């Protein structure tokens, strides 16, 4: 009985920082998965609302089609974020992080192993993200073009070419992320070797070309839109220009990785979850809610800031 009492007494206090629950990584698993559940729930909410708007609106077929596209985007994003939640919950990845009570002595190689495990988790998470973007972003480009169709002409090319360029942009970004692991050499002994040079140069070129593709996609969409002829009252800018933020997050990630080539900093991983999650909520979930509100004629009431 004494041992039980001692054990109970030892668990008093802040549980998160208690040695019994400390791990090699600093951010609790439940926090990481909870932040992604917020995004996942937002996508589900958007999908439900846009579905109801599509069914009940009295607007034209084009407006209904827009609601249907937003529903599809939200459902696909919800599915992918459920996979991300599984990865952060450690129920959807073969490589697990340390569990409570597994802390190794300071200076142990286990610290490096844990960093590599975080890197593997991040690779799996980014694979899910790119899968999501490859499906949803071309549909978003299509829907945004339809929102301004009839008010302005596209600058250079048609909607099919715009969606094709979007897929090319994502493919180039995926090469930089997975083909070069964010410009990190394959092994430390290959630093400044021909293979390392090729990986870094080709990765930088691919990322630069992806940025060029993004510029063309955005300019093709927004180049002729002004305050005088924008039927969305500026919302098409609000929902498309933040796409630049995805590229900025990738740039920061590549820059930080140059200082941590032997593993993946957990702070960077957490920051990516929060940044990409916020961008996805705005450009997909909030966008879907705006489309639904517009179809039901209450956009000025709900989205008047």
Number of helix segments? 10
Give the class from helix and strand content and strand pairing. Answer: mainly alpha
Report helical residue fraction: 55-70%
Task: List SSEs in N-to-C order.
Answer: HHHHHHHHHH
Q: Per the principal axes of the C-alpha atoms, what is the gross shape?
A: globular
Q: Low-confidence segments, ≥5 residues, pLDDT <50?
A: 1-5
Strand tally:
0
CATH fold-level label: Rhopdopsin 7-helix transmembrane proteins
The whole-angstrom Rg is: 23 Å
How far apart the termini lie comes to 62 Å
Beta content comes to under 5%
Number of domains: 1
Largest sheet geometry: none
Question: Keyphrases for this structure?
Answer:
305 residues, mainly alpha, Rhopdopsin 7-helix transmembrane proteins, 69% helix, globular
Describe the structure.
With 305 residues, the protein is mostly helical. The chain has a single domain (24-302), classed as Rhopdopsin 7-helix transmembrane proteins, CATH 1.20.1070. The protein is 69% helix and 0% strand. Helix 3 runs antiparallel to helix 4 (110-148) and helix 8 (244-257) packs antiparallel against helix 9 (266-295).
Structure summary:
This protein is mainly α and 305 residues long.
